[in-house]
Amino acid sequence: MSTATDATLMALGERFEKLLREHMDAWLTWAPRMRAARAEVQDNTASLAVSIQRTGCDVAQARISELERDMQPLAEEIIAAPASSLGGLRAKALVALWEAYPTHASHEGAFEFRDDGSRSLFEAVAVMTGLSPLVRELEARLAADVE
Fold it and tell me: What would the pLDDT profile of 96-123 be if each residue is shown by its tens digit?
């Protein structure tokens, strides 16, 4: 692979990381609001839409959707590009981290990897690419959200 191609992949990764950080902020704004909205209405789904608006969950969800529209094409480019350096691998690991976001507002305070093997491989890649501090920071924020 050419150095120029890997440099492009690393630049995509930098853009993606910025959006990933913004996405986490938006997600952590949304999750407690969604939990509050659901708790407020309990089993009354007809009231859920009103509660979602009242708690501001809809605004937070709109921001998440906006970020995801920007992130998805970058993620696809990153996934499709071959990597021949730690910088390129780092870009791919950022996409894997995004894909491991909890799928629900009521989460367990950690990223959701498919299995322990995937988690172990991701952690090794995070160490090798310097992503461990970011992963620890984001997981601490997820854990704080469930406390």
Answer: 999 988 877 877 878 888 888 888 999 9
Q: 87-92 long-range contacts, Cβ below 8 Å, gap at least 24?
A: 87/6, 87/9, 87/10, 87/13, 87/129, 88/6, 88/9, 88/10, 88/13, 89/125, 89/128, 89/129, 90/10, 90/13, 90/129, 90/130, 90/131, 91/9, 91/10, 91/12, 91/13, 91/14, 91/16, 92/13
* CB contact at 8 A, 94 and 131: yes
Whole-number Å distance between alpha carbons of 101 and 27:
9
Q: Kindly report the average pLDDT of the chain as a whole number.
A: 87
Distance CA 115, CA 43 (A): 32
The pLDDT > 90 percentage for the chain reads 49
DSSP alpha helix (H) spans, 42-115: 48-55, 57-80, 86-99
Cα-based angle 33, 38, 42 (whole degrees, multiple of 5): 155
Q: Say what the pTM is.
A: 0.81
